[in-house]
Design brief:
Elements: E1 3-4, E2 17-18, E3 29-34, H1 38-42, H2 44-53, E4 61-65, H3 71-79, E5 85-91, E6 94-100, E7 103-106, H4 112-120, E8 126-129, E9 138-139, E10 144-145, H5 150-157, H6 165-179, E11 185-188, H7 195-210, H8 212-221, E12 227-230, H9 238-248, E13 250-251, E14 256-258, E15 263-267, E16 283-285, H10 289-312, H11 318-323, H12 325-339, H13 351-362, H14 371-375, H15 378-385, H16 387-395, H17 401-414, H18 431-443, H19 446-449, H20 452-455, H21 462-489
Parallel strand pairs: 1-13, 2-6, 3-4, 3-8, 4-7, 5-14, 8-11, 15-16
Antiparallel strand pairs: 5-6, 9-10, 12-15
Length: 492
């Protein structure tokens, strides 16, 4: 017999499922969040749930929001259970479930009028974002906001009926300005270097296109703190729903399974106030840069390192990739030889210990994180997680043999078949372009590096081009397994 998750069920949850210790009726919203996906519900929402459980800051509850039609499905799933979420932490020998209740509402994605109205509400003092690395309209080659993107051009011409998250934010700020309400803080929770600065560039850059005076007001009145977020959170499938029902006796339309580890480092720049998240494990610092660079290069770069060889060898789960000695050793050698040396010292952190923790996290057999998820959206992720590391190595005159192999593996993956000949289904917003370019690169490796918007200056480096071409040739002639063996046998 299972219990269906709802507000009415909170009083009689299964004995092995923890529930909120606070009365949901005591909550009032203080944060509007765009991008209510698994990561947000396993990270920011959990920290807030912890804080509310301590009897604190009940005026900082969450309201969800979205801009895409596809987000309506998630909203409907959560609405059916009163916006509650079951979060299940798993690793070897540990499995723990809790119901979080930090979200009080989820506005209908696309309901522009209601979203702008809530953004203008003085009670909303923070607007947070988990919109993925590809959601910021960044030109990959320059790393800067792209004002020529069609969606941005559209919002610039129609500021009162925006379609993008940044257009909505500006519409809310415009109304607050007129009504004399202090501006809210905009807080990115995405894996992007200097995510606060990137968000500011997008918001102010869009405002500049239609109203330079308003753009100046935004620059002077809105805070955009940088932050580093971390928790491995795979997508939810029927597998997770069944595990929850079988092991805990609870039915949840959209549970979140994640690792026990979580981290959040934030710059303390919240002019209109913030919840006391330092009470529940968030680290507030003056400068988050050392932490985010460490995480993006070592962890996110590490994910990219294991993703493509595992994908080409038909490995399904991430922990299975780490059980393959060639993949695990490729990760260790590339990290220690080329990636970690580009990471400056981080206060209170030993980088080698940090990497060992990451190896353990990647090896967690309970999470069910998929290799395909790690391979997703390389056209947005590579310019953020891998290519800057290559650029730093080249500038320092250091070798890039392993990083060139990582790039060659990505190219080979985008060809669209694994080493066994199995078809790789489209796995990138730009898949058609990537596949076409990867086919051209089989005979002419320079075609891949000529994607200027992705590789920029790195693609024009003769040193990198030679290493890339050599690796891609070996991948085609010998396959992934033999290519990795040769790299690992190299004395460098």
């Amino acid at each position: 017999m299972t219990t269906k998750l709802s507000s009415a069920a909170l009083g009689h949850l299964p004995a092995n499922v923890a529930g909120p210790k606070y009365d949901r009726a005591s909550l009032t919203p203080g944060i509007l969040h765009f991008g209510v996906g698994n990561f947000h519900r396993a990270h920011q929402a959990v920290y807030l749930d912890d804080l509310f459980n301590e009897g604190r800051d009940h005026d900082w509850a969450l309201i969800g929001a979205g801009v895409f039609e596809g987000e309506k499905v998630g909203r409907e799933k959560l609405a059916e259970q009163d916006f509650l979420t079951t979060v299940v932490e798993q690793d070897d020998g540990h499995m723990q479930a809790r119901v979080t209740a930090a979200m009080t509402d989820f506005l209908v994605p696309g309901d522009t009028r209601t979203i702008i109205s809530r953004l203008a509400d003085p009670k909303i003092r923070i607007v947070s974002l988990t919109i993925t690395e590809g959601g910021y309209f960044i030109d990959p080659a320059s790393g800067k906001f792209n004002p020529a993107h069609p969606d941005i051009v559209s919002d610039a011409g129609n500021p009162e009926t925006p379609k993008t998250v940044f257009g909505l934010i500006l519409a809310g700020l415009a109304r607050r300005r007129v009504e004399g309400t202090p501006a809210f803080t905009v807080m990115s929770c995405d894996n992007i270097p200097h995510n606060g600065h990137v968000t500011a560039d997008a918001v102010i850059g869009l405002a500049q296109l239609s109203d330079p005076d308003f753009a100046r007001w935004v620059a002077e009145n809105v805070a955009f703190p940088n932050g580093m977020v971390d928790r491995i959170t795979p997508a939810t499938t029927d597998r997770e729903r069944k595990l929850l029902a079988d092991d805990f006796g609870l039915e949840d339309n959209w549970p979140v399974f994640c690792e026990p580890f979580r981290q959040w480092v934030l710059e303390d720049n919240f002019p209109t106030g913030r919840p006391a998240l330092e009470q529940v494990g968030v680290t507030f610092v003056k400068d988050v840069s050392p932490f985010e660079l460490m995480k993006i290069r070592i962890l996110n770069g590490g994910h990219a390192t294991i993703a493509y060889p595992a994908g080409l060898m038909d490995i399904h789960f991430v922990h299975e990739a780490m059980q393959e000695p060639l993949v695990r050793d490729f990760l260790a050698k590339l990290e220690r030889d080329e990636i970690i040396p580009t990471v400056p010292p981080v206060p209170g952190v030993v980088l080698e210990d940090y990497f060992k923790l990451i190896e353990k996290r990647f090896s967690n057999p309970k999470i069910g994180d998929t290799v395909r998820r790690l391979c997703l959206d390389g056209s947005n992720r590579q310019p953020k997680f891998i290519i800057p590391t290559i650029a730093d190595r080249l500038k320092a005159g250091k070798d890039v043999l392993g990083l060139a192999l990582e790039s060659a593996l990505w190219c080979r993956y985008c060809f669209g078949t694994t080493d066994s000949g199995a078809v790789i289904e489209p796995n990138d917003p730009n898949w058609e372009r990537l596949q076409k370019t990867a086919h051209a690169a089989e005979d002419d490796p320079s075609a891949w590096l000529a994607m200027e918007d992705i590789y920029g200056e790195v693609g024009r480096s003769p040193v990198f081009a030679a290493a890339f071409a050599k690796n891609l040739k070996t991948l085609w002639e010998k396959g992934t397994r033999e290519t990795l063996k040769r790299y690992l046998a190299d004395a460098h």
